[in-house]
Amino acid sequence: MRIVDLRSDTITRPTEAMRVAMAEAEVGDDVFGEDPTVNKLEKMAAERLGKEAALFVPSGTMGNMASLLSHCVRGDEIIVGDQSHMYIYEQGGSAALGGIHPRALRNEPDGTIDLDCIEAAIRPDDIHHPRTSLIVLENTHNRCNGSPLSTAYMRRVRDLADGHGLKVHVDGARIFNSAVAQGVPARELAATADSITFCISKGLAAPVGSVVCGTRDFIARARRARKVLGGAMRQAGVIAAAGIVALNEMVERLAEDHANAKLLGEGLLNTGSFEIARELIKTNIVYVGIRSEDLTSQAFVARLKDEGVFVLPVGPRQIRAVTQYHVTTEDIGYTVEAFKKAVS
Ligand code: TLP
What we know:
The chain is α/β, with parallel strands linked by helices. The chain has helices at 16-24, 36-48, 60-71, 85-88, 93-98, 115-121, 151-163, 175-182, 186-190, 216-228, 237-249, 254-271, 297-306, 329-343; strands at residues 4-5, 53-57, 76-81, 101-105, 131-138, 167-171, 195-199, 210-214, 274-275, 285-290, 309-310, 312-315, 318-322.
């Protein structure tokens, strides 16, 4: 049976070129700063994002956590979107590990947070309040339809942050999806951030890892934070090698995933059985609402599985489908038919 795995772009397996690069990687002990392949990936990543320095970490979650620990002190407050990955899917690590209080503000369907709301949430200097120290944005925004945030919006957030002496961190797990979708260099999207994390393990298809980018000072602090989080690795060049291939070979092709996501959204909309915010499909993530009152997302996902199509339930009547490297345009046609079958 044909299998179409749309649960996440995290399921992507390394390409042949990555496997060769991993097998041949020159390595050393990265805790001593002696892994040439890790060093090369960090240098490349910093250049691509227009930052002074970068740090290879095992996951996006750790990249975000190390960034928080490097920007904030215990008792600080951070402004985050209420739909952000950091707020919803990272076990409240800011509070649990960092003593950092999250102030969650409503995310709009396009992943932005209203600027007036941000401004109103910034704490005055008063001993009753925590100190606001950081604004966190997510680009693309996973739970907000994979929406890419524009350079203009990020600039406005930067200006607001500057007016109040705040830092800006971007969870750019899918920043290259954002860049490709908007036809701008990733560097332009990162320019207004003090720090940015991106993942090589999602649509770029490397098996493991994320990279945090920022100033030299910030990265030195993040390196300490990575150590206390247990994320300092040894001959990590074996995995960093795949990241180098990812940056060299896998960025432009993300446009195919975006085209497939659009195709999927339109195909499902045409069936009349699903609710989809078609105008918000700009990258590789499609949220699908199930119209039928008698069908829960759990039951629907199980039926789709019988057809070989894997998606994630994300609400009582909502599922998420993510296009990725192993999903072809033919798979999309097959998927639309499977959805029709599963809903009937
Ligand atoms: N997202 C995963 C799940 O955790 C939901 C997915 O399948 O989309 N930031 C963003 C925006 C993410 O989407 C993710 C992973 C992370 C951070 C965390 O990355 P990892 O899984 O490497 O810790």
